[in-house]
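To: structure desk
From: M.T.
Subject: fold request, one chain
Message: Could you run this one when you get a chance? Sequence is below, nothing fancy, just the single chain.
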Amino acid sequence: MTPSVDHVALPRLSAEDILLEPLLNSRHAEPTISRRRRTQSDSLIVWSTAGVALTTILSILLFFNALWNRDPSSEKAASLAVRPNPYLYLDKVLHKTTQTFPPVVNFPQVVLHFSAEDPQRRTWPESHRSRPTVFGTVYPDDRRILVSKSVSTIAQFRNLDYAMENCVVHLSLPVETDTFQPNTSLAKTSAVDIWVLEDSEELAQDIRGTAVARAPRRQSLLRLATLPFSASGSHQSPAFRCPSGKYTTLEIACSNASSECHVDFWQDRRAKPIGGAYIVQHSTSVP
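Reply: Done. Structure tokens follow.
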């Protein structure tokens, strides 16, 4: 006799249940997927934060290591870097030439002031005559010469051209014209000393009186001249050597021989007639 088999009736699914079954399954799976994504996001944040912290610490260590082991001689060498020589092989072309060239008038590119009573010789912010225009702020070539018992002026010249290494300092008051006002103020008995300074590095035009912005020291026994400043006429120093492509840095200070000393004016290299504190370069022979 064949044993009987119990039949269990399966639940019947309606058409609606069949359509909704994938949606129900996805709802049950969503929390698991969300937790997995959240875990991955948290891990990414942790590793990114650790990487940033590590690179920051490494940068700080490298900075202090460079600061601790810096070489003053390399800094000095970098500060002494000069501009490229534009006169290559002219010494060969002009070898033993007898040709001479007309003098070159050279105005200072940088003019700075400092207190004559300051042993640190810290320079002040550069005086300028800036003015607003429709194109923005304009800084003209005007330079201020200010000399008194308490203030000295630093003037730096870039020696121009080749084989023009015989220089003379000229001092005169600029003339007021329709297009240029020197705003001159002068004590009649003013006399100034002109000193050659030790350092011939290029000075920056945007010095703002920081701790490193100090006027170079005077070269001992290299006072070029003591010249009077009069309301008219021009006064010249003895000639001195100004090597081509180098810089000549001068200090203009009140002379101790002057009982009352005050010189204050603006100068412009483009103004005519020529006036102010400038040097004239004269032709020299090429060996």
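Reply (cont.): Confidence is low (pLDDT under 50) at residues 75-79, 207-212. Let me know if you need anything else for the meeting.
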